[in-house]
Input
Amino acid sequence: MEPVPETVTDPDDPRLEPYARIRERDLVGRGNRFIVEGEVTLRLLLGRRSRFRAESILLLPERWPSLAGAVAACPEPPPVFLAARAVMSTVAGFPIHRGVLAVGLRGAEPELSGLVPPPPSPALVLGLAGLTNHDNVGAALRNAAAFGADAVILDAESCDPLYRKSIRVSAGAALIQPFARLTADQDWLRLADSLGLQALALSPGAVETLDEGAAPARALLILGTEGPGLDATILARARPVRIPMAAGFDSLNVATAAGIALHSIARSQGRLDGGR
Amino acid sequence: MEPVPETVTDPDDPRLEPYARIRERDLVGRGNRFIVEGEVTLRLLLGRRSRFRAESILLLPERWPSLAGAVAACPEPPPVFLAARAVMSTVAGFPIHRGVLAVGLRGAEPELSGLVPPPPSPALVLGLAGLTNHDNVGAALRNAAAFGADAVILDAESCDPLYRKSIRVSAGAALIQPFARLTADQDWLRLADSLGLQALALSPGAVETLDEGAAPARALLILGTEGPGLDATILARARPVRIPMAAGFDSLNVATAAGIALHSIARSQGRLDGGR
Output
């Protein structure tokens, strides 16, 4: 059935409540909800590969025609509200430019064991330790999706991939790339063992360089923050590897380092398109 | 001679004028000057590999002891002003947290031919076409420095690597990585010819994947913006290559793509540290 959008003119309309004071709520969290901005990201939320359900969509009226098809193709099309720019901006609490917002529902966190294929299949999992910057988490998710990682695992300190800015920086990858949290009773090395993965700890101080030929067929690639890096306890128990760099400026952004390492491992595992 | 810092208490002191209204001036440009923020970046500006001279330095008093050595080691130590946080914030026009600022001088733009070693030496040059986002330009410079590119060349549309935010995102690489502008009478392909470089155009639509073995010993790697990508005229005349990705989400940030491609080419050229 073709979804029929409803026009909303009152900024206090209770149906728009989840869109109210977006920035203030970024700080305190939204419980089971998250905010998606922009057309590319909304299409991923509505698409076949999305891990989440849209609760509702809020658009400028002129954005509806180009998005109607994507909404109709959704198995359970969410309600669509149309509002003038001034109404959207009043509700959101800042000027809305692109005019495409949606509220997504988190649902239950997936079981890690269900995300990673069992041995002897190749497997590639990205572990993020202590990444407290939303841009870096979003960018790392984007790179994980680009290189087909089976899952991203975040420790308790790392920030939320479904934070508004993380989703935006991820180019929507946060909505399709499977991710899960490291639970309190797990640690990185026990996790690797339980899933049959070899733990690689990316560290500029490692002796071994990340070499395509030597990448394990089942890898958990762990990265820490740029300054302190990974805990000595992780480095001691995992296989430390580094990305070779030019002399004198061995400094990479953590998400970029993740991208380079994932590209290298994914190629050697044969999981990229090769001769598409 | 040990430099002696001078304490400044008046926000209207004319010696602090280059630090006034930092954000407003970001918009209009600073002519021959640029602003450096933070200790890591200041050390690069003062260091041996810096391409620029510091005109002056402005610090919170407590930051001086740890930086005195780096200033003293400078061939021509610039004047150092110390100011209380309230004075610094008043001058800059926003709250100064880290308490480390400097003004750099651009000097003359380097000649491109002087940056790229002549044949038959290996050469690696990064070309940025139409990159209008300061974060992306800064991040691309950082990756160029990390993988030892000889030079970065920016077209007229691309933004300034010495913009305050570009320097910050580059982790200071903008201060040491040689870069220059594509002049109005040049185009990318003529430039590659004149320097004896093979032009590689990174494009998701390319048939050929970037393969380490096949990287040219003298490469100009050209990247465009994420949306429109490179001009068809460039793609038609250069050798288009792509980074292989997972099916279904072939989307990389442009600076990340630059990092992955530079890493791949630099490795095959043998310019990375290998067994340091």
User: Anything to note?
Assistant: The interface with chain B takes residues 49, 139, 142-143, 145-148, 171, 173, 176-177, 209, 212, 243-253, 255-256, 259-260, 263, 266-267, 271-274, 276 of chain A (CB under 8 Å). Chain A has a mean pLDDT of 92. Residues 6-105 of chain A form a domain with the 60s Ribosomal Protein L30; Chain: A; fold (CATH 3.30.1330.30). The CA atoms of residues 212 and 268 of chain A lie 5 Å apart.
